[in-house]
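Subject: sequence -> C-alpha cells, single chain

Hey, anyone have a minute? Need the predicted structure for the following. Not urgent.
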Amino acid sequence: MPKSQIPIQLIEDDIALAHSMIGLLTTSDHSCTHYKNAEEFLNHIQNNSQSIGLTSCIITDVRLPTMSGIELLSTLKKDYKACVWPVIIITGHGDIAMAIESLQKGAFAFLTKPFDAYELVDKVNEAITQSQDLKKTMDFLVGYENSSAHLTEQEKIIMKYLLANKNSREISEELGNSIRTIEVHRASVYKKMGVHSLLQLAQLNERYIILRDKK
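Reply:
Had a minute. Here:
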C-alpha cells in the first residue's frame, strides 16, 4: 500500500492544533484519524483489534487528559504486543528528561512544539517505513507459530530432534520407533512448516528465534 493511503493515528486534545496537523498531513498526501484522548484511541483499537497489525503510525501529544502520551506508549508496549505502529510523541512542554524517558520506553521520535512541519512529515514517513518492516516481522512470527501449532505432539518432538541435528536412525533409537515411522513424521513436519529440507527448517527456526527475541 502506498504511504499516502496509510492512515495516521493522531491523538491530540487541542482541537485547533489537531485540525492544523490534519491539514498538514492531508496536504502531504496522508490520511489521518483523530482521537481527542488516549482512552478514545484505546477504545477504538480494542474494538478493532486486527487494525494494530496493519501499517500505520501514531502521533500523540504527551500531555493528554487522564492518560499521558508516555503512559499510552507504555500501555501499548505492555498490552498490545502485536501493534506495529511506531509512536511519535509531541509536546510543548518538553525537556531533556522527558525526551529520554519517552525514547527509553520505545518512542520512535520526540518532537517539541512548535515543530517544523517538514520535520514532522519526514518523521511520519520514516515511521511508516518502520511500521512496514515491523508488519513483515510480525507476519512471519505469526505464520511460524500458526504452522508449528498444527504439529502433533509427536511431530514437535521429532522437530526438536531434527533441529538438534539428529538423523532418522538416531531419532528412532531415542524414541523406540521404526525409522520408517520417523521418516513419515519428518515429512509431515516439513510439509506443515512449509520447508523441503532440514537446512530450510533450521534457517526458518533460527530466524524465528532471532526475531522473537528482538520483540
